Amino acid sequence: MDSVKHNPDILTCLANLSADEVFTPPKLATAVLDLLPPELFRRPNATFLDPVCKSGVFLREIARRLNEGLRDQLPDDQARIDHILMKQVFGLAITELTALLSRRSVYCSKKADGRFSIATKFERAEGNIRLPLSKHDWNANGRCNACGASRSEYDRDDALEAYAYPFVHGVDPQEIFGMKFDVIVGNPPYQMSDGGGTGSSARPLYHTFVEQAKKLEPRFLAMIVPSRWFTGGKGLDNFRKEMLGDDRIRKIVDYADSRECFPGVDIAGGVNYFLWERDRRGPCEVTSIAGPRREVSIRQLDELDAFVRDATTLSVVKKTRATHRSFLSSLCSARKPFGLDSKARPTHEGDLTLVSSESTGAFPSSRVTAGTELIHRWKVFVSKASSDHGGQADKSGKRKVFARVMTAAPGVVCSESYLAIGPFDSEQEATNTVSFLTTRVVRYLVAATLYTQNITRERFGFVPNLPMFRRWTDPDLYKELNLDETEISHVEATIRPWGEVE
């Protein structure tokens, strides 16, 4: 039997630069480009820009499609290739390394004008994949005005990579290449260290690339970004509002587990890619993918303050909001319910009891700076860190959501490791609240917009504030919210029973 030769795509074999600069697998790049109208690739004057080139996979796939689409109009192979690479396909690299990789992918040579390049007309080694000089714009607080990078970490010698990505540091590709672009597509860097916390703090960066791309007003914009913007958060609240209110976003394809897009890369909250069209407005087609489940819905993105991933969950949320006016977020504390950070620990003596992430013991009331209305009342503590990593389900496709839920008697306080819900007039009300919070329905409603590890007060914004003089069960809540069989099945398929062994 003749042996079958297998020639793997080298771009599927690249190791990622980091969890923040992730190479795009060819299969994913193809899926993103499939969002674009096919006729674009039959136009000899259509122009394409990847402003965040890493491996060159987008430009390579675009060139391949143009090569097929223009075959009849430009029948000479070499003339067609030269036309595409010189007049239609353009890129800005993010580092010197990615510039070389991208040129190798697109031109089959690290030098566009080299002897091995498939292009024959270039007179400069860079071709149309450039790495313009760009620098951070440091402010008095030691951070870059453009990207928020920490000066202590990124103010480096010119011989070292400073990660001042050209596209968001004052470089205008329209000036560099002398044209406007019909299509902008890419997978931008996701975040940048800002020097906060213990040095591991980072701020989102990907939204600045999206915002900058929109300013260039291409006909089409398609990018891959983390899904954490669905609910806002650090540096993302304005971006979330702008995105949800933009009816030019025509398609979103969302993956709850980033590893389904990027094998081996775990991005908390999942990832999504979207299509923005300058000249078309209307509802958005949302495709939500979580393991084997795939749901497609057509909807207005701004119907709620936060974005709910799948259509079934959205239906449950709408029923809840239609029939209830008060929600549990009104009883939930902000972070640091009692003004104590996560490092707070019990002391040898004190008039209160402190619950921290590691231990429980005596604590002086003189060190409590907030939450005085809760101190001497019954309440419930909920762990701030989710049981699920970044909103991901377990191997069975189910989530637990809360790591710990407990009653707290008068005189008991907690560190930043917990949120406090209350106050309540009796121990029975607090006990019933624990039962309520641990139902599948309540955890399902919290999980509806929980895309990160940290649970905040806002995540309780879809949970109805019901009277706690009685004990609530899931069957009670199915009836209370008027859920149908499809919705009940979805709740039970995605949320584990409380106390079930993992």
Short description:
The protein is of the alpha/beta class.
Question: Any overview of this molecule?
Answer:
The chain has 502 residues and is an alpha/beta fold. It folds into two domains: 10-317, Rossmann fold (3-Layer(aba) Sandwich); 322-494. The chain has 14 helices and 17 strands. The protein has helices at 26-33, 57-69, 77-87, 96-107, 151-154, 173-177, 206-215, 237-244, 311-323, 372-375, 427-437, 440-447, 474-480, 485-494, and strands at residues 48-53, 89-93, 129-130, 183-186, 191-193, 202-204, 220-226, 249-255, 271-277, 284-290, 293-299, 352-355, 360-363, 378-383, 405-408, 412-414, 418-424. The strands form four sheets. Strands 3-2-1-4-7-9-8-10-11 form a nine-stranded mixed sheet, sandwiched between helices. Strand 2 (89-93), helix 4 and strand 3 (129-130) form a beta-alpha-beta unit. Mean pLDDT is 90; it is low at 1-6.
Q: How do the strands and helices of this protein lay out in sequence?
A:
Blueprint: H1 26-33, E1 48-53, H2 57-69, H3 77-87, E2 89-93, H4 96-107, E3 129-130, H5 151-154, H6 173-177, E4 183-186, E5 191-193, E6 202-204, H7 206-215, E7 220-226, H8 237-244, E8 249-255, E9 271-277, E10 284-290, E11 293-299, H9 311-323, E12 352-355, E13 360-363, H10 372-375, E14 378-383, E15 405-408, E16 412-414, E17 418-424, H11 427-437, H12 440-447, H13 474-480, H14 485-494
Parallel strand pairs: 1-2, 1-4, 2-3, 4-7, 8-10, 12-16
Antiparallel strand pairs: 5-6, 7-9, 8-9, 10-11, 12-13, 14-15, 14-17
